[in-house]
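Now for one record:
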Amino acid sequence: MKVFKRRLAAVAAAGVLAGTLAACGDKSGGPAPQQTGEPERKLTFTVATTDTVTSLDPAGPYDLGARTLQANLFQTLLTITADKPTPVPDAADCQYDAPTVYTCSLKSGLTFPNGHELTSSDVKFSFDRMLRLKTPGGAAPLFGSLAAVSTPDELTAVFTLKKPDARLPYLLTTTAASIVDEQSYPAAKLVNDKAVGSGPYQLTAYQPGRSAELTKFKAYRGPRAAQNDGIDLTLVRDSAALSAAVTSGKADLAFHGFGATDLDKLRAGDKVQVVEAPSAEIRYFSFHFKSPVARRPAVRRAVAQLIDRAAIAKKAYADQVTPLYSVVPPGFGGHVEAFRAEYKEPNKAAAAAILREGGVTAPVPLTLGWTPVRYGPGAKAEVTELKRQLDASGLFRVTLRSVERPRYEQLARSGAFDLYHSGWMPDYPDSDDYLAPFVREGALHQNGYKSQTANKLLDQEVAAQNQLERERLLATVQGVVAHDAPLVPSWQGRLTVVAGKDVENLPSTLNALSYVTFSALKK
């Protein structure tokens, strides 16, 4: 029925178009109307980034570069806007009808750029396809609580859950929840060379690894409508190339990949504007519980008592990052500075007392693992500074061990290091995704930490229907993590965009998950 309706619509449209062309070609109908004034000026922005784009398909790998393009090309049922941190309607208005039933009512008249209608059938297809493909590195595991999507009618999609999951509205804002055209995508394989979505832009040209051309999709209906006519995106090599592109005027906007030195030069000059916002990206040091040393709570707590985050931010990153005092960074619901509350300021005497009360003799030998490249150019300076701090206390004797990827990840997971350097970028804009990956047994960051208290609290917050109650529980979990110290947070990143002086609305381009949306850009 849906395909038949679309064919009828296409036939009708063709008839109207044919009539219009016939009228235009009829010279006996009088003189053609004369054009007046200048041609309409198109507002297109040139953009540069060091991102790597692995896939245009929302069911594909879930990396930052892919998310940036997908967020601009596809529509989701709900979205997060720059002025509101909680989900708002995009393609649909959604609500819980029961703790395990979430109903989304689609806007009528939605279409894809190819003219196909967007209905609940496309929504069901998109989620069924993503869960069926289970792409390695993709987002299917995020939707583990989803039992089924049903379609009572063309404008209604009903999500039935296996158990209550308060995270679902936030999950529906992610690019993993993008709605694709079921007539353009195969059910059993990825499509990496095109994108057929109903977002603010449509893809008009794409060269993998090099460039993408986006044009405003005028039929988009949602809160993210483009205020410009298009984006010409170029992928560049490094920070120097980014800086050169934006200072020379070859790019109106540049993001993702600036080094601290280049940013300082750009700020000191007068050619561009530099706008920053807190990033969702964090760095931390994780203990592994296979290590006899790291299993001792006093050792972990003493390290947490000694770490000087401000010194790390200054010496390793020239203050281009922000010291972080919880696993959950500021800006996410329920954030509390749990490590600051637990340990106050760095204090050698307090750390010595922790070791003494725990029956641990100083100095404690500690192997600190790290890997070059993966966690940025400041990683070496960061681990070196932490080693200096711990050694200077006289309470630890730290040995640094550098290993290239992917061997580093294998060794870290196996417990080859007492302590290891790592980072995290959440998959969805909710505090739960900063806690569950570290606390849940068998979750992504498997360091052997187990806490029945933390797991019980997470169960409660996921099932909670009241957001204030959720945030109270999330804050309590952060306190448990700070006390147990299975990991020690180091810093929160900043998302920085650099643009020409005449570019407007830059703060509105910065997304909570650290990708960039282009809709608000104006001149």
Summary: The longest strand covers residues 272-287. The radius of gyration is 26 Å.
